[in-house]
Design brief:
404 residues, QueA-like, 2 domains, six-stranded mixed beta sheet
Length: 404
C-alpha cells in the first residue's frame, strides 16, 4: 500500500498546450484518429477501423449513463448571476432515476457559483414547457464541506424534475474548453447509446461510436455489454498533492445488471475491453464488491484504497467473484447490483477482468492517466509523445486510443 500512496504525481505530467485541446467535436463522430497500441507498438489509425483492430471474441463494455443539463442559471433582482450545478439527489430519494421522476420538491447536493451573492431567500427562474409557463424556485438549505444542499420546487405538479432541468438547464461541458455550451453540445456531448440520466460529464471514450460502428462490431462477432457509472464533478478534479496518497476520489454511483454479470462471467478467458475509464472502474469495482460480500459486507461500496488494503486470496478469482454476486442477486430476488465506488486504479493495481481499454487522452497529473499507466506501464509516455508529435486532438472532444 505504501508504495502506491507514495507515487509522485509529477511523474504523470506532460506538456499540454491549450491549442492541443479540441474545443469542438469533429463533424462525424467516427472520423476521429485512433492511437492503436499493442505489444509496445504504436500506430495511427482511424476510429472507424476499431472493429477490425479488436481481438476476436472480445467483449466491449459501455457506460450507458446520460449527461444531464445540470447547470441552472438564476438571476437575482440585484442583477447578480447565481449558477447552481446539480451533483446528486439527496431527498426524498437518493436514486438518480427515481429523483428525476419526482413532481414535488427535491433536495440535491449542488455546487454554487457566486454563492457569496446569495445569502438567503428564494431564487426563481421562469421558463416554458410545451407553451406552459413554469417557475422553478431554489432555496439554500445547508452548507456542506464541499458544496450545498439546495431545495428545488416548482409551480406545476404535472412536471417532473427531469423535465425541469431538460428545459431550463445547460449541458455541463468541461471547464477546460473555456467556452459556453452551445446547441450542438446537447447532442455531441452525449453518446449515441446514453440511456440513464445522472452524469455531469460524458464518458467521452464513447463519443466516437456511431450506429454503423455497432453494426460493424456485430458483423465481427464482437459482443457488447452495458453497465452504468454516473460521472461526478470529481472527474475534473486534478491531483494537487505531491503524492497520490493525499488525493481523495469522489464517490460515484454504479449499476450493473444480472445479465451483464452473466455476460462477463461467460466471457472470462476472452478479451474484455471497457470503453472508457468509467466503464473500467465499474468493471473492476465488481471484484472488490464481491471480496467484501464474501466477508459479510453487502454495502456494495468500494473505497479508494480497498484493492491495496483488503486481504488477497488467490483462491478467489474473477469467476468466483461473479458467481458470488449472481448468487446474491438470485437469493435476494434482485436483478441488478447498485452500489458506489471511489476506486483508485494506479500503477501496481492488478486487473481482475480488463485486458484492454478504449479511451480518450487525459489531462496531465490526473487519476485517469494513472489508470492508463496501471494498464500499459511507462509506455503511456511513448503513446502520448506519439500523439503530440502527430497532431492528435486531446481531451473530451479529442481523438481516441485503443490500448491492448
Amino acid at each position: 500500500m505504501k508504495s502506491i500512496e507514495n507515487i509522485n504525481i509529477e511523474d504523470y505530467n506532460y506538456n499540454l498546450s491549450d491549442d492541443r485541446i479540441a474545443k469542438y467535436p469533429l463533424e462525424k463522430r467516427d472520423l476521429s484518429k485512433l492511437l492503436y497500441y499493442k505489444n509496445d507498438c504504436i500506430q495511427e489509425r482511424k476510429f472507424s477501423e476499431l472493429p477490425g483492430l479488436l481481438p476476436l471474441n472480445s467483449l466491449l463494455l459501455f457506460n450507458e449513463t446520460k449527461v444531464v443539463n445540470a447547470r441552472l442559471i438564476f438571476k437575482k433582482e440585484t442583477g447578480a448571476t447565481i449558477e447552481i450545478f446539480c451533483l446528486e439527489p439527496v431527498e426524498p430519494v437518493a436514486d438518480f432515476q427515481l429523483a428525476y421522476q419526482q413532481k414535488t420538491p427535491v433536495i440535491w447536493k449542488c455546487l454554487i457559483g457566486n454563492a457569496k451573492r446569495w445569502k438567503s431567500g428564494l431564487l426563481s427562474l421562469e421558463f416554458h414547457i410545451k407553451d406552459k409557463k413554469v417557475v422553478l424556485f431554489a432555496k439554500k438549505v445547508k452548507q456542506l464541506s464541499e458544496g450545498f444542499l439546495v431545495e428545488f420546487s416548482w409551480d406545476n405538479e404535472d412536471v417532473s424534475f427531469s423535465e425541469i432541468i431538460s428545459n431550463c438547464g445547460l449541458i455541463p461541458i468541461p471547464p477546460y474548453l473555456n467556452r459556453k455550451s452551445e446547441d450542438q453540445d446537447k447532442k455531441r456531448y452525449q453518446t449515441v447509446y446514453a440511456e440513464y440520466e445522472g452524469s455531469v460529464a460524458a464518458p467521452t471514450a464513447g463519443l466516437h461510436f456511431t450506429d454503423q460502428i455497432f453494426i460493424n462490431l456485430k458483423n465481427r462477432n464482437i459482443e457488447t455489454g452495458k453497465l452504468t457509472l454516473h460521472v461526478g464533478a470529481g472527474t475534473f478534479k486534478p491531483v494537487v498533492s505531491e503524492t497520490i496518497g493525499s488525493h481523495e476520489m469522489h464517490t460515484e454511483k454504479v449499476v450493473v445488471s444480472n445479465n451483464t454479470l452473466q455476460q462477463i462471467q461467460r466471457k472470462l478467458g476472452d478479451p474484455i475491453i471497457p470503453v472508457g475509464t468509467t466503464s473500467m472502474r465499474t468493471l473492476e469495482s465488481l471484484y472488490w464488491m464481491a471480496v467484501k460480500l464474501k466477508s459479510g459486507d453487502d454495502s456494495f461500496e468500494v473505497e479508494q484504497w480497498d484493492p491495496y488494503n483488503l486481504e488477497e486470496n488467490d483462491n478467489f478469482d474473477a469467476y468466483d467473484a461473479m458467481e458470488l454476486l449472481l448468487n446474491y442477486l438470485y437469493k435476494n430476488n434482485k436483478n441488478e447490483i447498485k452500489g458506489e465506488t471511489r476506486l483508485m486504479i494506479a500503477p501496481g493495481y492488478r486487473f481482475r477482468f480488463a485486458t484492454g481499454l478504449v479511451t480518450n487522452f487525459h489531462q496531465p497529473k490526473s487519476t485517469l492517466l494513472l489508470l492508463v499507466s496501471a494498464l500499459v506501464g511507462e509506455n503511456w509516455k511513448d503513446a502520448y509523445d506519439f500523439a503530440l508529435a502527430n497532431d492528435f486532438r486531446f481531451l473530451s472532444y479529442g481523438d481516441s486510443c485503443l490500448f491492448l
